[in-house]
Amino acid sequence: MTKQAANNAELYDLYRELILDHARNPRHFGRLDNATHKAEGINPLCGDKLKMYFNIDNHGRIEGTSFEGSGCAISMASASLLTDAVLGMSVDDADALFDTVSARLTQSGIDEGSAVDIDVDVPLAKLKALDGVREFPSRVKCATLAWHALHSALSHQPTPATTE
Amino acid sequence: MSQAQLKPSSISAEWRKDFPILSQSVNGHPLVYLDSAASGQQPAAVIDAVAHYHREDHANVHRGVHTLSQRATDAFEGARDKIRDFINAASRTEVVMTSGTTESINLVAQSFCRPRIGPGDKVLITHLEHHANIVPWQLVCEQTGAELVVAPMDDQGQLELEKLWALLTDDVFILAIGHVSNALGTVNPIKGIIAEARERDIPVLVDGAQGVPHMAIDVQDLDCDFYAFSGHKMFGPTGTGVLYAREAHLESMPPYQGGGDMILEVSFESTVYNELPYKFEAGTPNIGGVIGLGAAVDYLQSIGMQRIADYERDLHDYMVAALESVDGIRLIGTAASKASVQSFLLDDIHSHDLGTILDHQGVAIRTGHHCAMPVMSRFGISGTARASIAFYNNSDDVDRLIAALLKARQLFT
Description:
Structural class of chain B: alpha/beta
Number of domains of chain A: 1
Structural class of chain A: alpha+beta
CATH class of the largest domain in chain B: Alpha Beta
Strand order of the largest sheet of chain B: 4-10-9-8-7-5-6
Largest sheet of chain A: 4 strands, mixed
Strand content of chain B: 15-25%
CATH topology of the largest domain in chain B: Aspartate Aminotransferase, domain 2
Number of domains of chain B: 2
CATH topology of chain A: Sufe protein. Chain: A
Number of strands of chain B: 17
CATH architecture of the largest domain in chain B: 3-Layer(aba) Sandwich
Radius of gyration of chain B: 22 Å
Strand content of chain A: 15-25%
Oligomer: heterodimer
Distance between the termini of chain B: 30 Å
CATH architecture of chain A: Alpha-Beta Complex
Number of helices of chain B: 14
Helix content of chain B: 25-40%
Number of strands of chain A: 4
Distance between the termini of chain A: 36 Å
Radius of gyration of chain A: 15 Å
Shape of chain B: globular
């Protein structure tokens, strides 16, 4: 494969159909009026902002999710995928998923076998669509923004989450 | 515009070969550098001057009697003389070396304004400013109780001059205004604005970071009180900058920072400050950087700023016409008088996505808010893609930009 072709492949890997679909038609988009937990995520590099909302019931289970804001295709798709993925999860599992996803997205130049594995249950398998950012160090923060906001919301941290 | 359309692929100049960095491939494609408004590339003459200094002449300036110190001092002060000539300051005492435009503006805010303003005074800026010409004034207003006032711009990104005149009231202590907008490329009619302000005895600071690299600057002809600019935007090293200030102002201002080099005599009871401009240059300066900046001035003068301005006008017009021909493009910043910069949006593709896709085709542009968030808010957007040219660019670069944008469209639809 020529270098140009390899680059092309990376680009198509980053902007997979699933990513573009979630970016264009974000799931659970909007305010969640009965949210018990919420947090704002700010990417200081571009000024993009996301607000994540979660409704957590008395048993520590995430019963409702939503987000609002604007951002690039990567950050919007990542937030949309997140709201799908953690719906119905326990808070502990969701926080563990934050660790897993963060680790997975920040491991660059590794092969599939050694990447931190994501449980293949649907819809979690879809999170692998974010893997393309590994080859784009400047865009990793776009993908992790919503996850940092999730972590912040679950731990009730009062200040906005950032990717720094 | 017509010239660009008549000669679609013929705008090029031989100056490109003077810039070693431009002859490389990025992501498998020959580099197209369209981000000079963020930082200009350095010609070999600048790189060599800095390297020569570090290899042969490095020592501290203004101190030693030994040979190297004398060489370093001569080269450093020689650069100051070149810069004085370049902007036609009346005296070398009016050329203060700083770390960049940001420090130059902070210096004026803290030393010229802070001791003299208070509640009831106003600092006037405009809606087009870079954060570096907003935040230093916000700080000094917070510190003193003065009020920050913002002159509006229209939908093309031009100052609304009638409204600006109306805001130039007696209680305005200083007007701080950009020469060329970094986000929109608008060239403000700065000479006329300075004349209006001077009629009302209002001092004017011009943020010239985007002006100096693209046109001949004559601070005496402009008749401004302060003119701030950066070395790295005019193809010199980062960490260098200049504050031009009228000598009478500098005489009347307290030092910005204390330290070595800015004093004549120090005891624990009192300190006698050094003469101008050294009173404002505390500590060991960026000697190598300033020498490189002097080399950048030599290089620019060997071409001539008017030639550069003429060439860039044609190339800018070509770029704007080419961008307009792309379906789904929305130009942000369409002032009648512009230089170097074109901001745009493509369909609903976020500028960061555009930046990544273009980079993968070897095309470097800036994306985001360009350190001018109020400008973005004025247009109801969070950011733009911005292509900015210098005299080392040519119409092939623009053609590559357009091809890369078409590819982005293809990827996203």
